[in-house]
Amino acid sequence: MTMIYDLAGVEGRGAYGKLTFDTAGNLYGATLDGGAYGEGNVFVLKRAPGGTWTGKNLHSLRGGVQGCEVDGGVSLDSAGNLYGTTLYCGNGEGVYGSGMVFEIIPAH
Hints:
- The protein has strands at residues 12-15, 20-21, 27-34, 41-47, 53-60, 68-70, 75-76, 82-88, 101-104.
- By secondary structure, it is an all-beta fold.
- The strands form 2 sheets. Strands 1, 2, 3, 4 and 5 form a 5-stranded antiparallel sheet that branches. Strands 6, 7, 8 and 9 form a 4-stranded antiparallel sheet that branches.
- It is globular and about 45 Å long.
- The termini are far apart.
């Protein structure tokens, strides 16, 4: 096994779920924790010539109706939009909410 990227570089902690490739070979994933608000994030890793990878935080979850703790990886549609689910937050009942389904439309 070879480490290709340390997630601390994209703010997240606790990578969770599968990674998803787009047609350009970029990898998308999510974390349970970390990000700008401590509620997890969605990131992309891009491979540079020579094989090194660079990371970018695409979206930090904010808690509440903005979701928290991504439950698994993310999926891509043919337009490059990302979809996933969260364990908690959203508009659900109770202290932590019931989770939610989200869509992220990355800037192209």
